Amino acid sequence: MFETLQPLPADPILGLSAAYRADTNPKKVDLGVGVYKDAAGSTPVMRAIKKAEEHLCQEQVTKAYVAPVGLGEYNETVAKMLLGEDLLRSLGRRRVTVQTPGGCGALRMAADFIRKANKQATVWVSDPTWANHVPLLGSAGLGIEKYPYYDYDKHSVRFDEMLDTLQQIPVGDLVLLHGCCHNPSGADLSREQWQSVRDIALSQGFTVFIDTAYQGLGDGLEEDAYGIRLLAESLPELIVASSCSKNFGLYRERTGALTVTCTSDQSAAAAITLLAAAARANYSMPPDHGASIVQTVMSTPELYADWQEELAEMRNRINGLRSMLVSRLAESEVDTDFSFIEQEKGMFSFLGVGKEQVKKLINEYSIYLVNSSRINVASINENNVDYVVESILAILE
């Protein structure tokens, strides 16, 4: 039966990475891959993570399975980081958290959970949104629609249009929001805009679904959780998919979580049984290593302090790279205004050039980025920024 199978096209970003590796140009720059990079162009293991791993190797006495819902201490640690200690306490048993294989696993678990609650549910995603949102959620059988989000000309959130659409979304549907550091645009909601979204969610009755993968890489650990905490304390129900890939550098360990708040303790008790059953049906038991690392870091004061310090270093570096890129572009006397890049958050921004110009950057200058012109700002450094600026200037001329 396999003779009838037809190959699928390569994933746009993974295909770019392969082309980059095969490129022999010594000046090549990969702005497409979505991982943090340091000044040397490497994705490092964070200091606290190394120490936590050493501790686990010495102290861990078993590799027996954890439960389908994961490591209980890790789940509580993630929930506290997302919600804060006071809100976590006030939500009580209305809140449940389960460990998942990365943020992708959390999204897929959420999709299965939503299908159990309402098979007819539609998830509304931002236009644009992270490329994997649609296949992860849509392949589970959920309907997908889009709401306006990013203005490519003004380089800002189309908030009035977004609100107009949200005001039409019915009970039973869900609105997927990015918790911070919007991927791919870098354009985040302000606190006032989060408050407006909360008000509409309350009046319309739709369910809010938040994907947060970059907490701590925008404005700070507490600051980046503002929208999540506002909605968790205000709405009767909330779904939050979270990842430790970026802020702990645990990409290959696939460490994530799904947090759900319900209208009552009884609903939450039912929810945890459905989530456990979904985990059992999908992958049986989640991997332990990444979760145990996070738990060790967060529960060990000296490791926690070191992790916070290095996370701040990463955040400040990204924000500094944004400023440096904008400054170097301005110094090049390019006609285009790129100042918006400095105002955006996280690793990603749109460069704002067309598909033909993207092709030129790739084919003529070995500057690799996706067709939308999304760039990973963290891939820029002192050694390549001048070449990146020269190449951008060349394709704009």
Structure description:
Strand 3, helix 6 (133-138) and strand 4 (143-148) form a beta-alpha-beta unit. Helix 2 packs across helix 11 and helix 5 (102-117) crosses helix 10 (265-282). The chain has 15 helices and 13 strands. The relative contact order is 0.17. It has a seven-stranded mixed beta sheet, with helices on both faces. The chain has a two-stranded parallel ribbon with strand order 1-12. A two-stranded antiparallel sheet has the order 5-6. With 397 residues, the chain is an alpha/beta fold. The chain is globular. The protein has helices at 12-22, 47-59, 72-83, 85-91, 102-117, 133-138, 159-166, 191-204, 226-234, 265-282, 289-299, 301-331, 340-343, 355-365, 385-396; strands spanning 29-30, 95-101, 122-127, 143-148, 150-151, 156-157, 174-178, 207-212, 238-243, 255-261, 348-350, 367-368, 374-376.
